[in-house]
Specification:
single chain, 5-stranded antiparallel β-sheet, 6 helices, alpha+beta
C-alpha cells in the first residue's frame, strides 16, 4: 500500500462537474476525515488513509514549490487555491482545484486544515501542466538542497511578469 511503490500511469480519472472532494487534516498533514468522493477517486479505503499523511496521494509530477506555497499560506493563517495532480492507489491520476483553509477552534487557534477540491477547468490544466513540468525541471537541475528555492524564484518571476498574486493567477486560470 505504500505510496512510494505506486507506479504512475497515464490513465486520467476525470472528476464530475458536481463532485467535491473533502478532507480534513491535523497540523502535521495527517488525514482525520474525508468524504466518500475522496475514497472513490484515490482508490484507497478509509482504513488505508485515516491517520496517514495527505501526501499519500501526491503525484510525482507535482513540483515541491507548490506545496511550499501551500504550507506558507496555511501557516500564516491564510487559505490557498492550487491546482494539484493527485496519484491514485492504482497509479492513475486526477487533477483538482484545491481550496485549503486553516480550521480554527473557538479561541481562533489553528487546529488543522480543511480542503475542498473540485473539478478544474481543463483550459487551466493545459496551462498548468507545462508550467509544472518546467518547475520540476528547475527543481531537478538545482539539486535537492536548492530545488524549492529555485522553483519558487521561477514562480515569483512568472507572477511578477504577469503582475498578479499567486491566488489571482490560479483564479484567473479557473475562469478561462
Amino acid at each position: 500500500m505504500a505510496r512510494q511503490h505506486t507506479q504512475p500511469t497515464q490513465q486520467e480519472r476525470l472528476m464530475r462537474d458536481d463532485d467535491f472532494i473533502v478532507s480534513k487534516a491535523d497540523l502535521k498533514g495527517r488525514i482525520t476525515y474525508s468524504n466518500q468522493v475522496f475514497a472513490e477517486f484515490s482508490g484507497f479505503l478509509e482504513s488505508e488513509f485515516i491517520g496517514k499523511q495527505h501526501n499519500l496521494v501526491r503525484h510525482p509530477d507535482m513540483p515541491r514549490c507548490v506545496f511550499k506555497l501551500l504550507w506558507q499560506h496555511l501557516e500564516s493563517g491564510q487559505e490557498i487555491f492550487a491546482y494539484i495532480k493527485n496519484l491514485c492507489k492504482d497509479g492513475s491520476f486526477y487533477w483538482v482545484l484545491a481550496n485549503v483553509t486553516p480550521s480554527r477552534d473557538a479561541q481562533g487557534k489553528v487546529v488543522g486544515y480543511y480542503s475542498v477540491r473540485r473539478k478544474p477547468n481543463p483550459k487551466a490544466i493545459a496551462v498548468i501542466t507545462p508550467l509544472y513540468k518546467q518547475l520540476l525541471q528547475i527543481e531537478k537541475n538545482a539539486g535537492a538542497k536548492d530545488a524549492i528555492a529555485a522553483s519558487l524564484a521561477q514562480m515569483d518571476n512568472l507572477l511578477k511578469d504577469k503582475g498578479v498574486s499567486y491566488e489571482r493567477f490560479i483564479l484567473d486560470l479557473q475562469a478561462l
